[in-house]
Design brief:
The protein is built from 19 helices and twelve strands. It is mainly alpha-helical. Helix 7 packs across helix 8, helix 8 crosses helix 10 and helix 14 packs across helix 15. Belongs to the transglycosylase Slt family.
Length: 554
Amino acid sequence: MNKTILGFMAATSALLAGCATPDFADPASGSSASGPVAQRLSRTPALAVPAIPAAAQLRNDDSDRTVSAIPSPVAGLNLEALGSDSASDVRPIDPLAPSTPIDPLALTAQEDLWQRIRNGYAMPDLEGELVASREQFYAAKPEYMRRMAERGGRYLYHVVDELEKRHMPTELALLPFVESAFNPQAISVAKASGMWQFVPATGKDYALKQNIFRDDRRDVLASTRAALDYLDRLHTMFNDWQLALAAYNWGEGNVQRAIARNEKAGLPTDYASLKMPDETRYYVPKLQAIKNIVSKPEQFAVQLPPLKNHPYFLSVPIERDMDVALAAKLANVPLEEFKQLNPQMNKPVILAAGTEQVLLPYDNANLFADNLRAFRGQLASWTAWQAPRTLHPGEVARQVGMSEAQLREVNRIPPRMLVKAGSTLLVPRGAKLEADVPEALADNATMALAPDVPPLRRMTLRAGKKGDSVAAVAQRYRVSAVQVAAWNKVTAAAKFKPGVSYVVFVPQAAPSQRAATRVASTANARTATARATKPAPATRNVKTVAKPVRVAQR
């Protein structure tokens, strides 16, 4: 598989639906999932990142943390797993996009990113009571606004950069505040996922891969590319940004039909005049309210965190399967921070064949490259395994060398379920499973389950002289009347006429149970035969002695 180092992406289109964050709920909490795979590094990836100026302030926050051009090795890393390569051996070549290293000390990098967003506003303003009510809502929750803005600070530079490349209004960079509160792990009740909120079907339609190992709807780069493609297409379709946003939330077909209804009735067809669900009616006012607050935060007593005009993250190539926890450790990034930048991982493993790069804070990229090159231990402790036939999880666990409880937990297999043939499971990487997961499996892995029920045995019966009702048959064989009716294509209230044949299905006994039943039946038969053939005991002659009767004397 050719590896392309991706820095800041833009490409195809995607449809979305649903918001993950209701008005009166803090959407900071979202569902995340992650998982594992592993192997020993057999070759050294040619990794390095742009040289970083000494003492450069690289973070998009208000901390005083500084970094040197070549950071020291990760504190707490298992040094026994590291080779003799020193950090001084790292050549500061630039395999990452953009081709020219970004200087965080340059004047443009020190500019205010919020002001850059304001300078690019290009959408007509929406006014009215709905906008005012949303302004009051957000302004009354300054802590909520601060948390959203801090979370969004990781991604805003990238989104603004992509919008400017496409010549699109920069206030669209604020749309994830409405969709997900800029939480890339957010999931809505409609199963929309990611900071741009794609539903599963439309995500697949627009090349956002979703399988047991990753969900590109949560991928920061891929989902941003898809969302901007779709917004651009909607604007071309409606020639109106407010209608385009309504279609983004409600669906283009619904907006087209709403416009057609108004045209037929001789009514205006602008956003405010259309009849639409409350969620869509409030959608653009929410964005307008956030836009107004970002424009003049002091008027709303909202303090926005300072954001500098340079990238928060860089993308670093992944050449081998690697545990998520190890990648975070090699980069000296807290695991939760790593997951916020790489939320697409469904398992605790990164499959190189399906994930060409990971995102790392700008000042941790060199450190990751250094430590990865020097690392001599096992990169991935898990791998993928396909079921050759339908199996019980206990049998799978025995074959792959792990406990059934662990297998069920890491693969989320509920009780009383079987793993169907062709399913892909996450299992420990061992001597028999050393190679990295191939691209076909990394991109198309699925898991299917089937109920763990005993096989059924068909019984053909004949109704008695008085007939048999469906309910009576169901009660006799401990099944539901609906099942008996379905098996015989009658209603649950029906009655089988005398002599008519009908069928029922009963659980097939296991081999051991059938053997026990045969033994018991044979024993019972022998006992009955013995009782039938055993001679009756001889009758003894017993003399009956009459008791004397006492006669009362008068």
